[in-house]
């Protein structure tokens, strides 16, 4: 799945809004559970990248 939706995601609340918006569009599809997991995974990776750049150690 294209991670353009989640590339600028910075927190879980924002990720949940993205997931919910996509669910409203695509929940009727048979492959929605797979798409949902891909969105969540890409979003969590984006959040981790954001946190790593925000708090370098």
How would you describe the overall organization of this protein?
With 57 residues, this protein is mainly α. The protein is built from two helices and no strands. Helix 1 (12-26) packs antiparallel against helix 2. The protein is elongated. The N and C termini lie far apart (31 Å).
**DSSP summary: helix tally:** 2
Q: Biggest β-sheet: count, sense, barrel?
A: none
**Percent in strands:** under 5%
Identify low-pLDDT runs: none
**For the residues shown, what is the average pLDDT?**
91
Oligomerization: single chain
- Kindly state the number of beta strands: 0
Q: What is the 3D shape?
A: elongated
Q: Give the H and E element order.
A: HH
Over the alpha carbons, how many angstroms does the gyration radius reach? 12 Å
**Class based on secondary structure composition and strand pairing:** mainly alpha
The separation of the N and C termini measures 31 Å
Helix content: 55-70%
